[in-house]
């Protein structure tokens, strides 16, 4: 079955960087969309980024700071987060539809990981 396992969350100072990882199994990552979605306490989930077939969708507030990359040989997707800001703390989820398009953008995906916590503070 489809499984997504995130890691890499933690505490980082404002302006700092963090890289999240998502290990995928049970589907062909190389031909599938992959997304990151976040949810802060008391707020609704919001799409951060979605990538498929060379196209990438960004939430405007993260464009220029966050990038997504894939290592298909390791079935792993990364979210590189730079210049983290006080509005970025949340639980970050990896998600997919196990299909090519990001038609679920920003938050409607079939499969989800358990999430990893990102905290920004000193």
Largest sheet: 7 strands, mixed
**Overall pLDDT score:** 95
Helix content: under 10%
How large is the count of helical segments? Answer: 0
Strand content: over 45%
Q: Which structural class should the secondary elements be placed in?
A: mainly beta
Overall spatial form: globular
Write down the secondary-structure element order: EEEEEEEEEEE
Cα-based radius of gyration, to the nearest Å: 13 Å
* Terminus-to-terminus distance: 40 Å
Question: What are the segments in which pLDDT stays under 50 over at least 5 consecutive residues?
Answer: none
Structure summary, number of beta strands: 11
Task: Give a summary of the structure in a few sentences.
This protein is an all-beta fold.
Could you walk me through the main structural features you see in this protein, from its secondary elements to its overall organization?
The protein is mostly beta strands. The chain has strands spanning 3-7, 10-12, 18-25, 34-39, 46-52, 55-58, 66-71, 76-81, 90-96, 111-112, 116-120. The strands form two sheets. Strands 2, 4, 5, 6, 9, 10 and 11 form a seven-stranded mixed beta sheet that branches. β4 and β5 form a beta hairpin. The radius of gyration is 13 Å and the shape is globular. The model has no long low-confidence stretch (mean pLDDT 95).
């Amino acid at each position: 079955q489809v499984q997504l396992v995130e890691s890499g969350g933690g505490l980082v100072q404002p302006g700092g960087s963090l890289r999240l990882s998502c290990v995928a199994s049970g589907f062909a990552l190389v031909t599938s969309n992959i997304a990151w979605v976040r949810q802060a306490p008391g707020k609704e989930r919001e799409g951060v980024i979605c990538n498929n077939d060379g196209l990438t969708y960004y939430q405007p507030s993260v464009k220029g700071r966050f990038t997504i990359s894939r290592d298909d040989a390791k079935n792993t997707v990364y979210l590189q987060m730079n210049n983290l800001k006080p509005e970025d703390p949340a639980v970050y989820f990896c998600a997919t539809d196990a299909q090519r398009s990001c038609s679920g953008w920003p938050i409607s995906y079939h499969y989800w990981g358990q999430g990893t916590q990102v905290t920004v503070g000193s």
